[in-house]
Design a protein that fits this description.
Structural class of chain B: alpha+beta
Largest sheet of chain A: none
Distance between the termini of chain B: 68 Å
Number of strands of chain B: 24
Largest interface: A-B, 62 and 66 residues
Helix content of chain B: 25-40%
Number of helices of chain B: 17
Number of helices of chain A: 15
Largest sheet of chain B: 8 strands, mixed
Radius of gyration of chain B: 27 Å
Mean pLDDT of chain A: 85
Low-confidence stretches of chain B: 1-12, 14-24, 26-85, 88-95
Strand order of the largest sheet of chain B: 1-9-10-11-2-12-22-13
Oligomer: heterodimer
Radius of gyration of chain A: 24 Å
Chain lengths: 315, 587
Amino acid sequence: MGAYLARRLATLPLLLLGISAVSFALLNLAPGDPAEIVLRQRNPGQLPSPAEVAVMRAELGLDASLPVQYARWVSRAVVGDMGRSYVTERPVAAQLARRTVPTVLLTTATLTLALLVAVPVGIMSARRRGSIVDTVARLAALVGAAAPSYALAYGLIILLAVKLSWLPALGYGSAAQVVLPAIALSLAPMAQLMRLIRASMLETLGQDYIRTARAKGLSERTVAFRHALRNALLPAIGATGVNLGYLLGGAVIVETIFTWPGLGQLMVSAALTRDYPVVQGFVTYIAVVVLLVNLAADVALRIADPRLRFGRDET
Amino acid sequence: MRKLLIPGIIMRKLLIRHISIIVPAALAVFLALVVACGGPSTATDNSPPPAATESPALPAATAVPQQRSQATGASEQPTMPTTEIEQASTVADAEEERPTLNAGVIWLSTPLDPVESGWVTSQSGMSENLFRLSASDLSPEPWLATGAVQTDPMTWEIGLRSGVAFHNGTVMDAEAVKASLERVIRLSPASAESLAIDGIEVKDEQTIIVTTVEPRPTLPGLLTAPATAITDAAAADAAGEGNFLDAGALTGPYIPTNYIIKERLDSVAHDDYWGGNPPLAGINHIAIPDTNSRELALQAGDIDFAINISPEGIGVIDSQPGLSTQTAGIGTSVVMWWVNFERGTLADPVVRQAVAHAIDRRSIADLVAPAGTGSYADNLLPEALVTCPGVTGPGFDPLHARELLSQAGYVDTDGDGYVEKDGQPLEIVIGGYPERFQLPIMAEAAQAMLGDVGIRADVQIAEWSMVKEPTWDLFGWYNNVVDAGDPVLNVSKFVGLKADAESSAANNYGHYDNSGLVDIVAQAGTVSDMEERKRIACEALAVVTEEVVFLPVAHAYMVYGVSERVTGFEPHPHRVYIFDHRIGLTE
């Protein structure tokens, strides 16, 4: 496991370098001169002169060649300096950090809720295949997967905040305020995980070793929870990792409806205003998050599934 | 190997066997963390009701002479902040006796320092100007001033209110006002050009004499611009860029204590306020750009006050016990489309006319501003400012639109329902931004109407700043059109003419060639008579209407959703004046 971890970690810097280089190049290929955009932002309605644009280009370091600009960016980024926003003039790292906390909180609550429901319902649905419980669970999963998050968000606010007054409609800062956005965001991953666990559990319950366990006279409960569940949960670990990476990138629509100050809103705003340092910082952040989450998911899988460990690295 | 294997086995067993314990425990831990982190909350304040004393009304003000001139006011659209967060180094002690009002606003996107915009501080009752626009006829009336007299075409004598203190305790006197206006001129080029101030003299403690480089018959009106709010210049400069909040440099009934751009702005009452103590402990302004969310937050009781309620929301809110909507019933903002003169298709005047005739603006106005929330706008400026008999925009006439398209060479040659010319289909892009609920509705309605006459339209709703990009043909826009209470100023502003009527730049997002208007607008240079200024404005409006420079749709009222707990709120037609020292909150 140690060697495996070391090998995976060693590839991370190379992957990050590649991703950041591609995004840097793509951003610079996009139409629009950032220097002119900055000047227009600072003086709305005014058309900057070529001389003013040239001065601003020099100020922003855009007069250097693209490789030189990228090298400068990398040299600063490795020490945590991702530059300053063209728009707010604040450090990008600070902006990302401030928005990361709400996003991590919302992601954690969302995935926790999704797992809390998906795991037991998925197992129950598989164990009682064809029953009314199974049918209802599958229908609910279908609705959960198909319903758009914005519709769910408004529906939840109307029901739980306006009609029943159980929860605040929006905002950020208290435990109650995380509940509605977490529910709105969790239904899709919840449905996906539930269906995955159900399918995996059904497949596992048909395996020979399960038949052997039953032949030994073990109760159905013991067969399901002590023998089948371990293997049935393996696909869910991978899927949870994928959802984690996705959610940590921010959820623009739900953040907007609930006025949740997460990363999604920051990214959209930066992209629309051509705030390249923020976009580049965000892409790098996402790359780090996705790579680390995938690594963590792989490690979790190897812990849960001995075949992965003993089959390759550690034999 | 065994060392690695044992923890792995333990972790696996813990993970799988006890997942039903681990997951809820994790949830509990994170929720506890959220609670422990605290942070801003939009929860309604449950503190006791205010003392049963009513703050005095604004002292009676001396009338301002009806002397007006043209000028370009500051744009109300959000400029980008120079800092994202401002937080007071010291926050006033928590008020226990008075409640705090929670207000849902659309955006909090401009810096606090008024010279950089002034809209946020003015709307939130933090900054004040020498003059403000009257709620009854939108003419300038004294605010921190007591009156103004034009002693010659280029000289104004302005009396100042006594007993006014900045939030930091410094007294506002003539020297302070002089320094404040000089700071505006130094830091705000647009204001400097608009005011054209040559010099300011202190006559006595409560009087200044302002001389201008050229006649400024509407100087009091120009001094209503939020960017010209009176600040303690020395304190603001000493605090430095990005630290304006620490300076205590404003005079309004509420003192800002915490500002997170695009998120929230908190304030406490200014108990040395010249108009009397506010009955509130303070106001928390929460940025809720989504109209539905803002209305639902009001219905849920998360906020006590919401601005810009949609027509659909009005019925819902009015039918809910404990809530109501309020409006002054005067349209001071226009909902319209810019027409792009630089981007190919609509540069052709015949096609422009065809598009104008193809869109049923009156029907769209009924959608986005039905009775009680606004009125149809045939012209750019509302009746509250000027009426121009005989100046009417292109009416809805789809048959004529088709004829015009044919005249311009666009016919449906392939039978797909859309017209082409030289094999190229006629396609236009309708832009807009979502924060104003009217704009997406307008865009979709126009898309369907244009489709009916064979014009393929693509709707692109994004950020308002998209208006600066050459990517649209029509761009939905919501803007105040009563700056300074002067019709000439407001029509010239929208065609990009500055105060001298000779230079062009600001606001002319449609890139209209305004050279034909220079002579018309220039007539107003020294005119102080309001009727004559209205005539000049109508002359200019006739030209821009004929050339389809804009497509006005509606003049929108400011509609507020208000909890019945809110007391003392009197809606002003202009959305730069929302919160004052009389607004309160009961249990």
